[in-house]
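Retry 2 of 3 after timeout on previous attempt. Resubmitting structure tokens to design endpoint.
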């Protein structure tokens, strides 16, 4: 199963009959949750629940915008609402006569009244609306399929980027593991010399070495390296398994960043090749941050 990006676009144009057609489009970008925004003609509000249900069945995360644009044949016959226009004229004339005013009704003003103009063939309009709704309900499934294909294709690109970042992260971890014994030996020797210099000739050498061993153990980064390798392996497994893994991957990266911070705090100021561990630790944090930027777009 692939991983899915939250970025995608799909569109379909359909001609329902000679009088009506429409364009249905889907656009998605990253979001923490599934955030759906519908843009429908007011006459098709009844479609909203059905479309929301379809989107929630197929998508898990992302800000999704669905837009339905309807195109009607301009040659469609049109008429006017006789009752509305007659009522307006009667009210105009009555007000004019009652108040002894002049003036004549303006046809342009009358026809701009809501509902003044209408389709003469009302039955045909109802049939067109029913056919339009039926067509949109048939097309939403295949359109979501197109969107998921694009999101999967974008997900493949994200996976390649993440795997390359993991490879570099693993190399940095291996680099630290290689210099760790020498750094620890250097740290132990330097610590021993400092303690001997501080205590002078009167000291218990065995006790001193025990104290040094405790301090060296506290600065040991073997556990951090082991956990980092475990996290990298788990990360690779999640990528291979695919599906909706964005939140899990983000959590793993937070844990990796925590291990990198601990590693740096334990090895700060060691000196010698300890500076190499610092360089590699900072490189780890840089790769983790790059990966986290990419993860924000994984479903």
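Retry 2 succeeded. Sequence:
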């Amino acid at each position: 199963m692939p991983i899915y990006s939250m970025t995608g676009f799909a569109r379909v144009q359909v001609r329902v009959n000679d009088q009506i057609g429409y364009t249905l489009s889907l656009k998605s970008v990253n979001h923490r949750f599934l955030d759906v925004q519908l843009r429908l003609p007011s006459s098709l509000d009844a479609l909203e629940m059905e479309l929301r249900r379809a989107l929630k069945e197929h998508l898990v995360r992302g800000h999704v915008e669905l837009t339905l644009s309807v195109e009607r044949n301009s040659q469609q016959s049109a008429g006017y609402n006789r009752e509305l226009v007659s009522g307006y004229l009667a009210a105009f004339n009555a007000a004019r006569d009652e108040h002894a005013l002049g003036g004549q009704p303006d046809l342009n003003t009358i026809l701009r009244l809501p509902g003044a103009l209408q389709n003469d063939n009302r039955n045909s309009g109802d049939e067109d609306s029913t056919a339009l709704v039926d067509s949109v309900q048939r097309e939403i499934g295949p359109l979501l399929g197109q969107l998921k294909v694009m999101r999967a294709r974008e997900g493949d690109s994200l996976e390649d980027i993440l795997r390359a970042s993991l490879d570099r992260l693993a190399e940095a971890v291996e680099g630290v593991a290689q210099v760790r014994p020498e750094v620890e030996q250097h740290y132990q020797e330097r610590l021993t010399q400092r303690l001997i210099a501080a205590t002078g000739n009167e000291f218990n050498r065995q006790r001193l070495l025990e104290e040094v061993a405790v301090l060296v153990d506290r600065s040991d980064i073997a556990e951090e390296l082991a956990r980092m390798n475990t996290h990298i392996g788990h990360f690779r497994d999640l990528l291979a398994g695919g599906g909706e893994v964005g939140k899990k991957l983000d959590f793993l990266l937070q844990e990796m960043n925590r291990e990198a911070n601990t590693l740096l705090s334990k090895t700060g100021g060691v000196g010698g090749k300890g500076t190499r561990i610092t360089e590699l630790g900072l490189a780890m944090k840089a790769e983790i941050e790059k990966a986290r930027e990419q993860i924000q777009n994984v479903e």
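Attempt log closed. Residues 253 and 289 are 8 Å apart (CA to CA).
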